[in-house]
């Protein structure tokens, strides 16, 4: 067997290259990767070399939404066998710090996370990975859906952070992948009214197909005015801000009800943005944030398997491994049309 990877040799440029076959250590499984999702963070690195506070140096390999089939089992692995189809949770944490020991391992600072500098991602043919982070997929969950467990876990974590329950009214700002998985998670948790805003009509149409009850084109309509109209002037229980748009962030305090919750998920281009803290205090609003997820993969897989969440419907484009460069260019240049792209190996 030979391993091949899509390597970013320059910012915005890929080459397919031979890379070493990974060594299977004790406790590892060797996985033949079958699907890699294209995440917004991958696109940021591809376009500029930056994402949030992270800066990559080339050569660099992208991809952290991955699933495939086990083809070799390392020593001391009793939970997996050859042929198991698995979704890889992309972060390996230290297991020793305060956050790991209290179950908040997503906050571990000593984490090795796919495609987060300085660590390469998994846009390659084969990956060796700890078995305990390779979650076995039920027979009725495909490896394409397995790759989407990663973004879905963000959405489920967001819904949990926001406290969505039966009958909740929620708003989701932004209909990229994370906005849509947050919509799906909120719907599955029992939200009865789901208002979604974006500036692209095609994305808003996709949101409706996934369960949005009301849509607002933020480029054409008065967003706080429409939210007030849809909620009888009350505002929503929970606002999920996934867009990162500065204006949208500022309007979260207008759209949430008194005593409600704002959940911040999307990164803004600016590290610091203005916010009406006077109104925040007057309305006694709770602000929470989301950084990745923790202890969510089994829940996400079960949600897909049971039919509670139909994750495959967020995919709009599929590309071949050999066309990875074209895939990233397409996602980067056609954000209105390419809502979620996946790469098939």
Automatic annotation (TrEMBL):
Limits of the Enoyl reductase (ER) domain: 12-339
Keywords from the UniProt entry: Metal-binding, NAD, Oxidoreductase, Zinc
Domain of life: Bacteria
InterPro entries assigned to the protein according to its UniProt record, in alphabetical order: ADH-like_C, ADH-like_N, ADH_Zn_CS, ER, GroES-like_sf, NAD(P)-bd_dom_sf, SDH-like
Keyword Zinc: yes
SUPFAM superfamilies: GroES-like, NAD(P)-binding Rossmann-fold domains
GO molecular function: oxidoreductase activity, acting on the CH-OH group of donors, NAD or NADP as acceptor; zinc ion binding
Presence of the UniProt keyword Zinc in the record: yes
Stored CDD domains: sorbitol_DH
Similarity field: Belongs to the zinc-containing alcohol dehydrogenase family.
Protein name per its UniProtKB record: L-iditol 2-dehydrogenase
Annotated source species: Ruminiclostridium sufflavum DSM 19573
Lineage, opening ranks: Bacteria, Bacillati, Bacillota, Clostridia, Eubacteriales
């Amino acid at each position: 067997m030979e391993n091949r990877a899509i390597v970013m040799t320059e910012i915005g440029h890929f080459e397919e290259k031979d890379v070493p076959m990974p060594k299977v250590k004790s406790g590892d499984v060797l996985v033949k990767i079958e699907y890699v999702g294209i995440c917004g963070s991958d696109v940021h690195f591809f376009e500029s070399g930056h994402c949030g506070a992270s800066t990559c140096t080339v050569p660099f390999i992208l991809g952290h939404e991955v699933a495939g089939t086990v083809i070799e089992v390392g020593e001391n692995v009793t939970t997996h066998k050859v042929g198991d189809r698995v979704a890889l949770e992309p972060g390996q944490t230290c297991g020793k710090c305060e956050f790991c020991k209290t179950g908040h391992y997503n906050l571990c600072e000593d984490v090795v996370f796919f495609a987060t500098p300085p660590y390469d991602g998994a846009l390659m043919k084969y990956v060796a990975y700890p078995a305990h982070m390779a979650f076995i997929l039920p027979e009725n969950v495909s490896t394409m859906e397995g790759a989407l467990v990663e973004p879905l876990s963000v959405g489920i974590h967001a819904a949990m952070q926001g406290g969505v329950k039966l009958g909740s009214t929620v708003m989701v700002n932004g209909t990229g992948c994370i906005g849509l998985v947050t919509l799906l998670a909120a719907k599955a948790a029992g939200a009865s009214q789901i208002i979604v805003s974006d500036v692209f009509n095609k994305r808003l149409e996709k949101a409706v197909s996934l369960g949005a009850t009301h849509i607002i084109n933020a480029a054409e309509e008065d967003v706080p005015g429409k939210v007030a109209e849809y909620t009888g002037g009350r505002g929503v229980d929970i606002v999920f801000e996934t867009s990162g748009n500065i204006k949208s962030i500022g309007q979260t305090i207008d759209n949430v009800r008194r005593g409600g919750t704002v959940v911040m998920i999307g990164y803004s281009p600016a590290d610091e943005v203005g916010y009406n803290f006077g109104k925040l205090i007057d309305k006694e609003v709770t602000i929470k944030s989301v950084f990745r997820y923790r202890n969510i993969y089994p829940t996400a897989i079960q949600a897909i398997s049971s039919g509670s969440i139909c994750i495959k419907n967020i995919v709009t484009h599929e590309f071949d491994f050999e066309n990875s460069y074209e895939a990233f260019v397409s996602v980067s240049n056609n954000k209105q049309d390419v809502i979620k792209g996946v790469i098939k190996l």
